[in-house]
C-alpha cells in the first residue's frame, strides 16, 4: 500500500459515518449494561460487567444496523445477515477501548457522566482506521 492509500477524504468520511453508527449501537448496550449494574441491586465483578457490556454492545449495534438497513429498503433477513456480517473485529476493538477507558478513569465499571464522551472518543478512534482500510482495500462497509 502506498501513502496515497490513506489520503482519500471520501473514504475517511464514509468510514467515519459507518464507525459513528456502530459506536451509537455499541454505546447503548455497553453503557446501559454498566448503568444497570450500578443502579440496581444486582452485583457482579468488574470483569463480568465488562463482558456483559461487550456482549450487549455488540447485540445493540447489530440491532441498530439491521434497523438502518431495513429503512434503506433491504429485506429483514438480508439486513440482519449483513449486520451480523459487519466486522466483529471493529466492534470488539470499539468495546475494548470504551471499557478500558472506563476502567482507567473510574477504577471499575461505573457509569459516570464525564467519562462517557472520553469513552466514546476512544471507542470511535480505535476502529476507525481499520474501518477505513476495510472500506478502501476490500470495498466492505456495513451500509
Number of strands: 0
Count of alpha and pi helical runs: 6
General shape: globular
Secondary-structure element pattern, one letter each: HHHHHH
Structural class: mainly alpha
Task: Specify the oligomeric state.
Answer: single chain
Strand content: under 5%
Provide an overview of this structure:
This protein has one domain (10-136). Helix 1 packs across helix 4. The protein has 6 helices and no strands. By secondary structure, it is an all-alpha fold. The mean pLDDT is 92.
Name a few traits of the molecule.
143 residues, mainly alpha, single chain
Helix/strand layout:
Elements: H1 9-39, H2 46-71, H3 76-84, H4 88-106, H5 115-125, H6 128-138
Helix pairs in contact: 1-2, 1-4, 1-5, 1-6, 2-3, 2-4, 4-5
Give the structure's gist in a few sentences:
The chain is an all-alpha fold and 143 residues long.
